Amino acid sequence: MKEPRTIVFDVSGVIDCRNEIAFLITADNDHVTIAGETSPGGVAIYNYRNFVIRGEAEQVVVRFLRFHGTRIHLRNDPDGLLIWHAKNVIVDHCSFAGACDETISGSDVENVTIQSTGFDESRKVKAHSDYFNNKGQWHNYGGLYSRARNVSIHHCLFAHQSKRNPLVGKNSYVEAVNNVIYNYSNSQQTWGAAGEGLKIAHCYFKLGPDRRKRPIPVRDNVLAISGCVSKERDGSPGPAVDDLRKLGSLTLETIETADDAWDSVLDRSGALPHDATSARMVRETRDGNGRQGYQAAIDADRAAIKPGPLPKDSDKDGLPDAWELANGLDPAIGTDSRRSSPSGYSYLELYCHELATRLIAAAGSRR
């Protein structure tokens, strides 16, 4: 199906993919919004093989979903989310845990935003097919971006990822702003091949139990670091490696200090409300404990996803009857969700925005 559409949820709780693909989005089925905020109690996808956006796909939005990787090791070491040969993609308020390789990666991509999302404790396994003959390097990585143009990663939590938080390759332009990076270990924290473009601004770096080597290394990069805080340096400002003007101004309209980002990321990043895994990531980041690697606790965490009540939707257009009546619509007309409101957005877009705003506001009020 090629026409623009929005996927809404009338289910909640755990969806067990039994090691199959969760989503595969290509040019044949793109122009899609997956609106996890419409689930009455939240959705957690467990034991999935991978989630791939590829094949010249464009105009893809994914919001408020939780992904927990399979407990078995799979050949080809799938990422939590792989964006490959795609453009105009937004990932917002999602949580990814237990990936075999990188948590979220992009290759040959353009105009991608990953925001307020959890890069949570990927599995600590030997990489790629070498795993099966006990060779290769141990992998539990944040994200790898190569030939990636105009990629923004902001207000995300990278917890218990050894490195690549993120790693940026040649012919790329990536900005990482207002992220919290906790319990990384490898000195190759944020480096890539010569000729890359990576801007790191107002991020909060905090070492944990798996600490090693120096905190924020730089090697052969076109790299700018500004306004960061390094907790292992007693909260002192991080190094100003290069002037941001050399890579141009940041595209984000609103940028917080690293200290302010610490609170906003831990309160409101990831799929909301936080499930037990996301809550544990936040708690361990705040308290300075926990270890790298996919924890057995994730299997117990799934019990914490409880289905919620489904609001009545008589015409099955994705808009609850009560919301339609409150907004001057007819609950018996099944085309209202596609109609344009006076604001220019469809009524379904307005409803989804209202749900998302409510979830974010509730998360910010819990502290």
How is the topology of this model organized?
Elements: E1 5-7, E2 13-16, E3 23-25, E4 32-35, E5 43-48, E6 51-53, E7 57-63, E8 66-69, E9 81-92, E10 95-97, E11 104-115, E12 118-120, E13 125-126, E14 138-139, E15 144-154, E16 157-159, E17 167-168, E18 174-177, E19 180-182, E20 197-201, E21 204-206, E22 222-226, E23 229-230, E24 236-237, H1 258-268, H2 276-287, H3 297-301, H4 321-326, H5 347-364
Parallel strand pairs: 1-4, 2-5, 3-6, 4-7, 5-8, 6-9, 7-9, 8-10, 9-11, 10-12, 11-15, 12-16, 15-17, 15-18, 16-19, 18-20, 19-21, 20-22, 21-23
Antiparallel strand pairs: 13-14, 23-24
Brief description of this entry?
The chain has 367 residues and is α/β, with parallel strands linked by helices.
